[in-house]
Fold this sequence. Notes:
This protein is of the alpha+beta class. The chain has helices spanning 45-57, 92-109, 161-173, 181-195, 199-209, and strands spanning 19-20, 31-33, 36-39, 65-68, 74-77, 82-83, 131-133, 142-144, 149-150, 157-159. It folds into 2 domains: 3-77; 82-209, Orthogonal Bundle (Transferase(Phosphotransferase), domain 1). The protein has 5 helices and 10 strands; from the N terminus they run E-E-E-H-E-E-E-H-E-E-E-E-H-H-H. A hairpin with a 2-residue loop joins strand 2 and strand 3. Helix 2 (92-109) packs across helix 4 and helix 3 packs across helix 5. The radius of gyration is 17 Å and the shape is globular. The model is unreliable at 1-15 (pLDDT under 50).
Amino acid sequence: xxxxxxxxxxxxxxxxxxxxxxxxxxxxxxxxxxxxxxxxxxxxxxxxxxxxxxxxxxxxxxxxxxxxxxxxxxxxxxxxxxxxxxxxxxxxxxxxxxxxxxxxxxxxxxxxxxxxxxxxxxxxxxxxxxxxxxxxxxxxxxxxxxxxxxxxxxxxxxxxxxxxxxxxxxxxxxxxxxxxxxxxxxxxxxxxxxxxxxxxxxxxxxxxxxx
Length: 211
């Protein structure tokens, strides 16, 4: 898909009942129409769509991009399944699986050009960004079921492998104050082992998590 010249799409289902979706971080209304999601088109959308298309071409399962509707909104595939947030904390096998998913995303992103970080506004920017990242890899953005797919890529942008992994580790590991240390450490270990983090990344992760 050439996201710089997306055509307005008129398809069956437009004008049908719209069901508002909640829980995402996208500004504005996000609705489901049939088997699609409609959300605002922003200045960053063309770059994000190009990034997603590149990930999909590298065999990362991500929501399909279906153009733009008559109201100027993004049309994105609605992924059926259960949001992982309702299953938190995930069990050890699931955490390893999530770690492997994120490693696949990061490795696929290595060969994808990033936009100029100075012109990219992110709520929580990383120092010295060098990789396009999701930036909100968390249980509220993971659909599980027949497919396990990260959704809500609108906050994607220049970041680092360490920052993206640390954010995800805290969210999926439920590393909150008051959590029993042994159970939290077990969850974190499963997640990081699934990712296949090397020694340098493992050593840097604790400090990045507490930032």
